[in-house]
Amino acid sequence: MPHRALLELRNVTIKFGGLIAVNDLSFTVNEGEIVGLIGPNGAGKTTVFNLISGVYRPTKGEIYFNGENIVGLKPYQVCQKGIGRTFQLVKPFGNKTVLYNVMVGAFLHTNNTHVSREKALEVLKLVGLHHRKDMLAKNLTIVDRKKLEVAKALATEPKLLLLDEVLAGLNPAEVNEAIEVIKRIHRAGVTILLIEHVLKAAMALSQRVVVIDYGRKIAEGPPEEVTNNPEVIKAYLGERYGAARN
Ligand SMILES: Nc1ncnc2c1ncn2[C@@H]1O[C@H](COP(=O)(O)OP(=O)(O)OP(=O)(O)O)[C@@H](O)[C@H]1O
Ligand SMILES: [Mg+2]
After folding, report:
1. Is the overall model pTM greater than 0.90, yes or no?
2. Greater confidence, 200 or 20?
């Protein structure tokens, strides 16, 4: 059987005025993979997610999901196709309960309250937030807010989940806990593309990483190979990471 990528970006470019935020970028994510998208601040990572999820339309290039070009679809249509995402800045409905917030996601596929409630409870269990279901979202700790963000995305039943820096701001123990949650989601059959600044975590989770700098891909491969790539070390990892590895 010929192998087909679940997600494929082909020569994707977007310009904001004079700034080329994503520049001729091509990469694939295969079904069942966890792929890391890494790069320095301002490299264009979140913009890539906005392009995939239909928030922005590329100036040039194509984006295929399940073999279908999804360029031009609205965000809710992309979501209906099976791509869920989290946002770097989490914005739940603070005065609503955790359960309510997750049910909003589940209503993408149903208008039955019972069905959406069951789905929401299922994903809350998966991310380990079930015991907080009746709490107002604004009262959650940071780590639980992150879990809520992931649960909201999961409630839309994605085949592909885009995670934008869900580990940022967590302490080391919380990072480890969140890594276990991500692994659990992956084992449940969800393909994952993740943006991560906590490099150790990105490396531990990803089978493959794609490194971008100034919107361009500068390296791609298994984590251990990429971290030894001189261009990557120069652009991003720097001496701090180099020192940490020795
Ligand atoms: N809507 C926009 N209009 C103009 N410029 C934008 C827009 N969105 C992003 N940019 C610019 O595109 C570049 C890439 O931004 P992006 O947010 O994708 O970076 P990032 O890799 O996610 O960075 P970080 O690690 O800080 O989250 C930046 O220079 C940013 O200022
Ligand atoms: Mg970003």
Report:
1. yes
2. 20
